[in-house]
Write a structure and sequence with these properties.
The chain is mainly beta. The chain is built from two helices and six strands, in the order ααββββββ.
């Protein structure tokens, strides 16, 4: 009974429950991305991440994955551009 009430009344941010991308940029040196599905391409010049219905193309120099897990990835380097593409 209490477990059901807690499950129905949890305060989960809409962004997380809607499964939409969340990006946090720190200048041109770092970007943290939540709710990605898969790393499609990885190189020091370009990274492509898959989301539910789109792709994010990150271009730059010396790009590197600082960390990643099933929910979040952190990319560091000199980020020049980030563009969405259709899935």
């Amino acid at each position: 009974m209490i477990g059901d009430w807690l499950q129905n009344h949890q305060m989960v941010p809409e962004e997380l429950s809607a499964d939409i991308p969340i990006l946090y940029a720190l200048g041109q040196q770092e970007v943290k991305i939540q709710n990605y599905k898969k790393i499609l391409q990885y190189s020091p010049k370009e990274m492509i991440l898959l989301f539910k219905s789109k792709r994010l193309v990150i271009q730059g120099d010396h790009l590197d994955i600082y960390y990643f897990n099933e929910d979040e990835i952190c990319i560091r380097g000199h980020i020049v551009s980030m563009n969405y593409q259709s899935g």
